[in-house]
Amino acid sequence: MIVRVALDTALDRLFDYAAPDALAPRLRTGVRVRVPFGHRAASGYVIECHDREAPPPVATDGAAVQAGLFGDAFAPAARRGALREVTGIDDDRPFFSETLIRLIRWMADYYCAPLEAALRCALPAPVREGGSKPKEQVFVDVAAAGGSQPGSPSTRQRVLLDEIRARGGGLLQTLCRELKCAPETLKRLAAEGWLTLETRQIRRDPLANRTILPTAPLALTPQQAAALRAIREGCDAALDARASGASRPPPPVLLHGVTGSGKTEVYLQAIAHVLARGGGAIVLVPEIALTPQTVQRFAGRFGGRVAVLHSALSEGERFDEWHRIRDGGARVVVGPRSAIFAPVADLALIVVDEEHEPSYKQDEAPRYNARDTAVMRGWMEGCGVILGSATPAMESWANARRGKYVLARIENRVEDRSMPTVEIADMRLETARAGHAQVFSQRLLEAMRDRLAGGEQVILFLNRRGYATSLVCPKCGFVAECEACSVAYTYHQTDSRLRCHICGACATVPAACPGCGDPAFRYAGFGTQRIETIVKTCFPQARVARLDADAAARKHGSDEILAEFRTGRTDILIGTQMIAKGHHFPNVTLVGVLLADSSLHMPDYRAGERTFQLLAQVSGRAGRGEIPGHVIVQTYTPDHPAIEAARTADFERFAEQELRLRRDGGFPPYSHVVCLTFKGRDEGKVAFAANALRKALAPLLPAGADCPEPMPSPLARAKGDYRYQMLLRAPAARALVASLRQALKTAPPPDAVTLAVDVDALSIL
Questions:
Q1: N or C: which end of the chain has fewer CB within 10 A?
Q2: How much is the average pLDDT of 471-484?
Q3: In CATH, what class is 672-759?
Q4: Confidence of residue 131 (pLDDT cuts 50, 70, 90)
Q5: 672-680 and 754-759: which strand pairing?
Q6: Torsion angle defined by CA atoms of residues 745, 746, 751 and 757, in that order, rounded to the nearest 10 degrees
């Protein structure tokens, strides 16, 4: 037998090795092996296994080997000379199933990334690197036969033995702490035969310190029930087909439900259905900050069958959770985008909550979209997929309109609660009235006073962290900018430092303007820290908290802030998009959006869509309890279609307008976009590399493709690198990527220039 191995070296090709007779019975697709490579030993994963006499079959499922992508075509050893042999196997159990290997190969192909990079992102680092091991601790119990030494235990020893017997034994460290004795005391009793000591593996449980309250299924509204019925029918058909040896994946279900409509309860009951039929499930959430509350709800329903996977866990917790999933100890996996690769056996359902969220897109190679990868895994596994959102992505909505996805609607909130009323505050009028720019409109301040007086809670949303967005000299106009990036520093009041939100650099606040020497610096703009200061001044009796990336930097920081707010110990919560989605706060009756224009005028064709989605999501935090909610949106462009659609909560009207603009402009979902970003220290070399690739690519482009000239990126310099961009568009992404691969063979970027390829780019900044 010959095995094809993807090594841990990113060479973007597979290597053939012979399987020695001693190891051949244990070799299979997905196992991790040790092989000789050059003058060193390397590790890798078996991607294919073949007999020596025959070449491998040609793949036909979209994960086919592309010319030049995975190295030379397979050839028998007789034609290629003697092959070196596999020297060892790390684990007899595969790290990847055959279906996951197919998915990873598709991902590397579609997103134009090395196969090794795709394999790396599919495994948690502690599992991939092998640095973490199962945790072992000593378990103590009373010996059944009693002591082997002559004499009886002392009075103190007898008390310890009775206590340990009453507890049914326990961990050595725990018993010593609770019984106030030294480990040597118990070890001596074990040596005398009164106790037994046994080393056992202990699971590092990320939910160990959480209180999980069991929940029961809730009664569904008619629209929830109809959505659940559509999901169950698709899953049942797929499971029945799988039982008969066939594969019949159901079409994905786009669950379009308004905020507060009970989409999560539909997920829970759909998962309960597939669990009852012996299947497993994966639940994706867009951000780690949303994972704890989601896990709380799913663990409350499914108990120990739930596993958590995300990078905020300790290495030991991630190691144990991944192995528990692979061993079948967990049937439901909850996590952000990387959880789509969880090794769930008999996968029957994948849920992508808030499917429109851009955080499902990875920003480093492979730049995959977890939503689209979930749809592809569902197709390969033959399982159901639910895409849930109150504001679906334009691509998903277009697929539903074309009949590619099944559309299930939930148009009303649970218990017939009303949607919040949305009021637009025109900040142009506020500025004219006061004679200068205002942070708060009078209407918002009055509404906050009224709601706080009634014992209700308020959320203030601003998608800018820090205290001030820039430091400006009013005399000469100097702006403090990051030396490595073409952006202004943001002033952070908590440590009185200037910070760059691109590269993370920080600097001290100068005593005087470096340009003219004037000490009268002015802080321009405002962020969440400044809003916190103003709110505490305006409402000194209110309990105020802030949740942004700075406040949540410490472990469990966001959990603690949200718990304080959820239990009513905080009156006003100020935050960025971390508070805009997925949270359920029944006592929040007022939401204030302080600067709705912050994302509206970005040089990005998705700016209107993102603004509408964000406004709709944050508005949905209000009025989820008995008291109706109210939202005040402060904006300088009240007539913009995205603002107007958010006011009326009319997604379909907004989508119709947005899709018309996309179709006229030739943007997704009516085309595929590939964003090429060239980066390097020398601007001339970066520009030359971009133009050389365009020259090589232009004659290779498929019909209907567009390849404009490279231009400096909207963010022209970041982390010391100059950046040029080229935005490719074509009807089909695969043909465009194939042309790009071919062009890169003749015009590869020089060593001083790096190229980032972003297929189906969600951002062009």
A1: C
A2: 87
A3: alpha beta
A4: low
A5: antiparallel
A6: -60
Residues paired with residue 711 on neighbouring β-strands, in sequence order: 725
CA nearest to 70, candidates 112, 36, 114: 114
pLDDT of residue 599: 78
What's the DSSP call for residue 398? H
Contact indicator for 631, 422 with CB cutoff of 8 Å: yes
- Find residue 308's DSSP bridge partners: 334
CA distance 648 to 424: 11
List C-alpha distances in Å: 324 to 133, 266, 331, 406, 559. Answer: 13, 26, 9, 33, 25
The residue among 577, 589, 585, 267 whose CA lies nearest residue 418 is 589
- Predicted confidence (pLDDT) at residue 450 exceeds the cutoff of 70: yes
Long-range contacts of 436-445 (CB under 8 A, 24+ apart): 439/526, 439/530, 439/531, 439/534, 439/594, 440/534, 440/538, 440/592, 440/594, 440/634, 441/632, 441/634, 443/632, 444/592, 444/632, 444/634, 445/538
Could you tell me if 575 and 528 are in contact, meaning their C-beta atoms sit under 8 angstroms apart?
Answer: yes
Q: What residues contact 286, with CB distance under 8 A and at least 6 apart?
A: 336, 337, 353, 354, 357, 359, 360, 581, 582
H/E stretch holding 586:
none
β-strands 40-50, 2-7: how paired? antiparallel
Stretch 574-603: mean pLDDT, rounded? 85
Q: Looking at 510-593, list the stretches that DSSP marks H as alpha helix, in order from N- to C-terminal side.
A: 528-538, 557-566
Task: Judge if the upstream peptide bond of residue 206 is cis by omega within 30 degrees of 0.
Answer: no
Q: How many Å is the maximal CA-CA distance in the chain?
A: 96
Residue 683 has pLDDT above 80, yes or no: yes
What's the pLDDT score for residue 583? 80
Summarize the chain as % helix, strand, coil (round to 5).
35, 20, 40
C-alpha 254/C-alpha 258 separation (Å) is 13
Query: What CATH homologous superfamily does 222-415 map to?
Result: P-loop containing nucleotide triphosphate hydrolases (3.40.50.300)
User: Secondary structure of 205-260 in the HEC alphabet?
Assistant: CCCCCCCCCCCCCCCCCHHHHHHHHHHHHHHHHHHHHHHCCCCCCCCCEEEEECCC
**Residue corresponding to tokens 């909550």:** 353
Distance CA 457, CA 539 (A): 13
What are the residue boundaries of the structural domains of the chain, listed by start?
2-122, 135-202, 222-415, 417-467+526-662, 672-759
pLDDT of 75 higher than 50 = no
Burial class (CB in 10 A: 0-12, 13-18, 19+), 18: middle
**Most confidently predicted of 154-163, 198-207, 405-414, 462-471:** 405-414
Predicted pLDDT of residue 755: 95
pLDDT tens digits for range 608-637: 999 999 899 899 889 888 899 999 999 999
Share of the chain above pLDDT 70, in %: 94
- CB-based contacts of 290, cutoff 8 Å, min separation 6: 354, 581, 582, 583
Its CATH class, for the domain covering 417-467+526-662, is alpha beta
Instruction: Provide the 8-state DSSP code for 276.
Output: H
Are 222-415 and 672-759 equal in CATH topology? no
Q: Is the pLDDT of residue 431 over 80?
A: yes
C-alpha span between 518 and 146 (Å, rounded): 86
- Least confident stretch, 36-40, 86-90, 201-205, 591-595: 201-205
pTM, full prediction: 0.86
CATH node for 2-122: 3.40.1440.60
